[in-house]
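### Sample
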Amino acid sequence: MTTAFRLATATLADAPRLTRLVNSAYRGDSSRQGWTTEAHLLDGQRIDEEGLLEMLAVPEAAMLLCLGPDDELLGSFYACPSAGKVYLGMLAVAPAGQGSGVGKFLIRAAEDYGRQHGCTASKMTVISVRPELIAFYERQGYHQTGETEPFPTDPRYGIPRQPLTLLVLEKPLAGAA
């Protein structure tokens, strides 16, 4: 099914539609259509357009896009190489398209992006109370490192309804350039 997917890299002009996609995948009623919702854990938005523009401005980093027929935005994933590891964040798949292979397509693309930038490992953080999401990433070859990070306190990324911690997951990247 992934043959219909096309990979692209976001530009500043994509920020408005990316902001809508990410927020629809993580928060609000529309996110409840999919299994990646955080609406039961956090109030508010996942990201604003300004925050997305800041991410797009990071040198070497890229927001990878999965496009469908007619350039429909199906999903996105942030990849930021640094010190031999590529940090992956904010995987977002349109709620109606979750379970169709978009997430796996973007994970592979982001890992390839890391390899192209000389990275030997991939790293991400996941909210600790998301066992279904952690299990998904473990099926993709990621493992928990035992490390944790505090959940961001900036309300522009959401307001937790309970104390939250981020687990650090990593995966070695074979065949790094």
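The mean pLDDT is 91. This sample (GNAT family N-acetyltransferase) is used throughout the tutorial notebook.
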